[in-house]
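Hi,

I'm pasting everything inline rather than attaching a file, because the server keeps stripping attachments. The sequence lines come first, and each chain or strand is labelled.
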Amino acid sequence: MKINKFYVVMLLLALVAPFFLYPVFLAKLLCFALFACAFNLMLGYVGLLSFGHAAFLGTGGYITGWLMMNSGITPELAILLGTVVSGALGALYGKLSVKREGIYFAMVTLALSQLVFFIYLQAPFTGGEDGMQGVPRGHLLGLIDLSDNMNMYYFVLAIFLFGFWLIHRTIHSPFGQVLKAIRENEPRATSLGYNVNDYKWVAFTISAALAGLAGSTKTLVFQLASLTDVHWHMSGEVVLMTLVGGVGTIFGPVVGAGVIVTMQNYLSGGELGNYIHIIMGFIFVVCVLAFRSGIVGEFQKVWKRNFG
Amino acid sequence: MKMMKKTLLAASVAAIASSAAMANVSDGKVKIGVLADMGGVYADICGQGCVTATQMAVEDFGGEVLGMPIEVVSADDQLKPDVGSAIVRKWVENEQVDAVGGLVSSAVVGAATKVLTDAKKIALISTAASNAFTTKACSPYNVHWTYNVAALANGTVKPMVEAGKKKWFFITADYAFGHALEGVASKVINDNGGEVVGVARAPLSTTDFSSYILQAQSSGADVVALANAGNDTVNALKAAAEFGLTDMMDVAGLLVFTPNAQAMDANVAGGMRTTTGFYWDYDDKTREWSERFMARHGSIPAMGHAGAYSMTMHYLKAIEAAGTDDSDAVIKKMKEMKPDDFFSRNATLRADGRMVHDMYYVEIKKPDERRDSNDIMRVVSVIPGDQAYAPMLPECNFK
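And the predicted assembly:
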């Protein structure tokens, strides 16, 4: 019951936020929150650290950007197709990588995402280092003008809520229970008769598709798809967001993305602009040393100890 | 009593409205954003120096225009189009920025100018080289000041081809600027009876140029053209010297900024000729400004620094003449008024946003020719603007 009230409060905050804060910043925050939630599905609930999620974020972005510029379809279709292509890529990569675990899984996903990076660097349609510039936002369903920042924000919010709901639903389904069982004790899950690789593969595909959804949406918000989104730095950043917020908690990645994006946003313009990577690295170290379960994880512990 | 309050309120609202209408300056101030590379390979040619130059222009103008204060804000684009365009978007949509100056890497500027044009705000481009901003991506709100790739190719490449250097090899920065420079230079080479025998494209911020130099070495070219800029040129030339390439063939730096020339080994770079939009030691007027800049910034100005000052000054003068900071009116005035200062000689701002002015064909001095560490170049000849820049495209005439 408490949780439900909490969700309602958060939703209301999200609905009124653009009247007080810059909508594009909030939309960016939601895109990264969705990306981190998608990543957390793998790290937090299956226990696999993917180090190549930027490939899916970038693929969604480039496909959607290209469609918006060249095909004349409406934005929701372009986003859908971007998501589908990312999901398909995720299915392929998942098939190749879920047979391995731990550091080997991370290395396989990293290597595959570097392949994707190189393709996007060289392929003419992406614009290489220049990125895909001037992507039109278009009209949602042919009716609502997304070039208005407020409309764009509420569209992004709807997408985020859909993605968040889907992850929530996945985790709390029997399928999600099996994933958690695999995370806790894989041999036991196998002995119970579950084909763990198939479960991991499906989870990887869902995660990749949602990362693609985040990338597609981000491209529309910024009207730009660039190599930053496919670079391995981005794969690292999403790990940081998830760890800072709290691995394996449903709200952790959202909080983590909020913290990191806000920091990047406010530090980049100020005196500390040159030190942004040092500051983020410092936070990462403190996080790993002092509160390993992240902001949300620690908060839950304190809550349970005192009120639970 | 209530009535009185209402009248007072109405009167004060009217007073505020009318004072705003008289000044015609949005938000009660003129705000200029400077987007530059604060820590990357272009930081020396338009980083903090471009902010300083813009601030100098604002101070020399008197700090206010039409009775309203002028504010300068700055940010680091990290040479990334996504970072740069996001900052510009935030500035114009949320922080009342009226014009954005600096603008260094052509990739970032391409993304930033699209945002600015959508928002009907002025782009004051000081250091980007691509000619796209006044050709295929031209916009009524683009003002391209210091130089462009056409001027570099006409200035540097043409005399060399005419002197008999027919076979060219390019080491090109692999993004908008490099592609544009290589394209324009190749056309100049082909039109004058030369040929391009090979191209190697290196990513921006490459530190190890050895593989590209080896390709150049085996190409059999007369000239290796460096179609890159900033520290990339410095590193490429260093590698060329280490591999003995500079003894075998000519190396032409197509875009050499003064601070980069200063960082090069004078024994290697000495004698190299290139084209620039400004040289600090040209005459008394350039020296007067450059010495003031040096006192503030600590090093000699690159052409982009001088350009940033000059275009900011012209922008502010246009606001004063137009009596408003409305972009359309200001751009119109900027194109009507002739820019004329230590930087802009025989200059006009064309209807397509290209500022056409005298360019300089310069030679980098050999070590024994230099009187001190700031004495880097010698002006060989002045190239009149109409010979340096390509003619205006009819579709980019925004008169």
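Chain A has a mean pLDDT of 90.

If the labels don't parse on your end, tell me and I'll reformat.
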